[in-house]
Specification:
By secondary structure, this protein is mainly beta. 0% of the residues lie in helices and 53% in strands. It is globular and about 40 Å long.
Length: 123
């Protein structure tokens, strides 16, 4: 399985970014694709997830209403649209995948990971 993220960068507070995760190497039916972030000096934290087969989504409370996760079946790509960014959103963002749709906040349940993309939000 390969997960390749792109789209990170530097943005001012209130701005927007769209992250992409190109997925390949297996069928993703029955799997969840998620975005997880690690802020400097902190643990990895779940951000958002989408169930590949039907597009059902789930978000951390901290990003609900600001971030949107969606997938493109034809391109086998998952996106994270991030609006109204805040300095506390600064982190390395990872795309990851796992089986099933339960206990999505448990980051150790994700078995394949991308290399990460840096998002920096200035105040």
């Amino acid at each position: 399985v390969q997960l390749v993220e792109s789209g990170g960068g530097l943005v001012q507070a209130g701005g927007s970014l769209r992250l992409s995760c190109a997925a390949s190497g297996r069928t993703f039916s029955g799997r969840t694709l998620g975005w997880i972030r690690r802020a400097p000096g902190k643990e990895r934290v779940f951000v958002a997830a989408v169930l590949w087969s039907d597009g059902v989504t789930y978000y951390a409370d901290s990003v609900k209403g600001r971030f949107t996760i969606f997938r493109d079946d034809a391109k086998t790509t998952v996106y994270l649209q991030m609006n109204n960014l805040k300095p506390e959103d600064t982190a390395v963002y990872y795309c990851a995948t796992r089986l099933g749709w339960s206990n999505l906040r448990a980051v150790d349940e994700y078995d394949y990971w991308g290399q990460g993309t840096q998002v920096t939000v200035s105040s």
